[in-house]
Amino acid sequence: MSLYNLALANPRYAVMLTGLPLLIVLEAIAPFLEGDGRWRHTAKNLVIGAIYVATTAVLGLGIVWLLHATGRNHWGLFNHVSVPLWIQVVLGVLALDFADYWRHRADHTFRLLWRFHRLHHSDPLMEASTTIRNHPGAAITILAPRAILIPLLGLDPLVLIIHAPLALAGQLYHHSNLKLPPILERVLGYFIVTPSQHFAHHAKIRKYADSQFGVILILWDKLFGTLLQTPDRAATPMGVRGYDDAASQSIFGMLASMFEKKKPATGLPLAAVGLDARTQEPG
Fold first, then answer.
1. What radius of gyration do the chain's Cα atoms show?
2. Listed range (203-207, 223-227, 269-273) with the worst mean pLDDT
3. Residue 135, pLDDT above cutoff 90
4. Is the pLDDT of residue 276 over 60?
5. Is 191 a member of any domain?
6. Residue 38 contacts by C-beta under 8 Å, 6 or more apart in sequence?
7. Domain presence at residue 277
8. What Å distances lie between residue 218 and 43, 95, 103, 146, 249, CA to CA?
């Protein structure tokens, strides 16, 4: 089987092609928040998402090659320490999720990474389609943890086969605008990231936007103090200040946003590295 076919065989695509449409339909039937122009908004997210997914498919060939090279050349810890495969899988999935947490924090810390990540945050709504509303350039940093950990730990392909769809399913779920029973959200929230936790991460209020960085497990936010008590979702403005006008929300505007340098709200501190146009407290 060619590298390209192996990449396309990733069960992540099966989750995307089934889970995303299902959630979009369920969001229309039982939305947490109502909104006008929802279908047009979703359609634009899907166009951006298609460009992003195509980029990850191409870059994913490199990840598949790296898996083959790691196994062939016996790179990494697990190729030199005798560990049962199931333990390798558990530790590998945990390591990738841990790395994704820190990668996500880096997206909010360094100016260049934020400029790519900002498109994801500039969504004035939060719904399942927001998951793939990413700048194509962000695919490099999103795939970086895998590219580092595969040869470092000697990850078996099974680790990626399990982690990739789990991570996507988790992201589709915690970005969703789906009204679920509160008891179910509370129980799930002890273990994984839920919409009632993650929506604050998409708020215009900076202290919330710089919290809730987890991808699958909420554990890392709890351990590193980035899990905040959330405000009222219905009363919380979403998106990024300066990027909610019609031009910025157009397909071209979203793709070009990484080149823009807009002034942040006045009288508020920025990160030490000098981030610009960040999510801010309302003036």
1. 19
2. 269-273
3. yes
4. no
5. yes
6. 28, 31, 125, 127
7. no
8. 30, 14, 15, 20, 30
d(CA 47, CA 251): 8
Residue 2 has a pLDDT of 52
Tens of pLDDT along 191-208? 999 999 999 999 999 999
Dist CA 20 CA 135 (whole Å)? 18
Within-domain flag for 274:
no
Residue pair 82/246 in contact by the 8 Å Cβ criterion: no
How many domains does the chain fold into? 1
Contact indicator for 149, 95 with CB cutoff of 8 Å: yes
Is the confidence at residue 127, as pLDDT, over 70?
A: yes
Q: Tell me the two tokens of residue 95.
A: 């390591």
Please say if the pLDDT value at position 98 is more than 70.
yes
Residue 36 domain boundaries: 3-259
Instruction: Indicate whether 31 belongs to any domain.
Output: yes
